[in-house]
């Protein structure tokens, strides 16, 4: 399902540094220049180890690389992966559809009151979701929807 991902020497160096600092193995490293951040994809179940007690591993990593560091837990299932990526506590459902032209689209359902948190400041979480969904599962579009609340007429 996942296509082969090519890493630059810098990304390999970052992943090695990540492993030395956290003790967890990074599956992937994405440098997002636009948002001035480095996103590491960690294997399933390794998130706690990667973060460290009180976030100490992430803090020391951010001090070393002088950029924001974000972590995402990998999952073979694209719906679960997107849910992890966008905060599984706030995501109620993820549907993956194949459009008529053969491209894949993910529709993420969230509570209308939590949509802003899920999308992130200036859409940074939504952008991260699009980037990684494309990179891993060839999903070309990620829509973050919130169902309109039904009002009951009395």
Question: What would a concise description of this structure say?
Answer:
By secondary structure, this protein is an alpha/beta fold. It has helices at residues 9-22, 47-51, 56-65, 78-85, 115-119, 124-137, and strands spanning 26-32, 37-42, 68-73, 91-98, 104-110, 139-145.
How many separate domains?
A: 2
- In the CATH classification, which architecture of the largest domain applies? 2-Layer Sandwich
Main sheet record: 3 strands, mixed
* The CATH topology of the largest domain: GMP Synthetase, Chain A, domain 3
What is the share of helical residues?
25-40%
Radius of gyration: 17 Å
CATH domain class name of the largest domain: Alpha Beta
CATH superfamily of the largest domain: K homology (KH) domain
Provide the β-strand percentage band. 25-35%
Annotation field: number of helices = 6
Query: Which residues form runs of ≥5 with pLDDT under 50?
Result: none
In round numbers, the mean pLDDT is 89
Shape: globular
Structural class: alpha/beta
Tally of strands: 6
* Intertermini distance: 50 Å
Order of helices and strands: HEEHHEHEEHHE
Query: Within the largest sheet, what's the order of strands?
Result: 1-2-3
């Amino acid at each position: 399902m996942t296509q082969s991902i090519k890493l630059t020497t810098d990304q390999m160096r970052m992943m090695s540094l990540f492993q030395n600092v956290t003790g967890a193995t990074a599956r992937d490293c994405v440098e997002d220049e636009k948002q001035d951040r480095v996103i590491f994809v960690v294997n399933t179940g390794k998130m706690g180890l990667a973060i460290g007690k009180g976030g100490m591993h992430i803090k020391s990593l951010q001090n070393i690389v002088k950029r924001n560091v974000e972590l995402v837990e990998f999952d073979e299932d694209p719906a679960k992966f997107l849910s992890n990526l966008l905060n599984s506590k706030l995501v109620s459902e993820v549907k993956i559809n194949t459009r008529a032209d053969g491209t894949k689209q993910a529709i993420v359902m969230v509570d209308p009151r939590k949509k802003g948190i899920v999308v992130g400041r200036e859409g940074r979480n939504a952008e991260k979701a699009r980037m990684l969904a494309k990179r891993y599962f060839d999903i070309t579009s990620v829509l973050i929807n919130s169902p309109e609340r039904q009002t009951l007429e009395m």
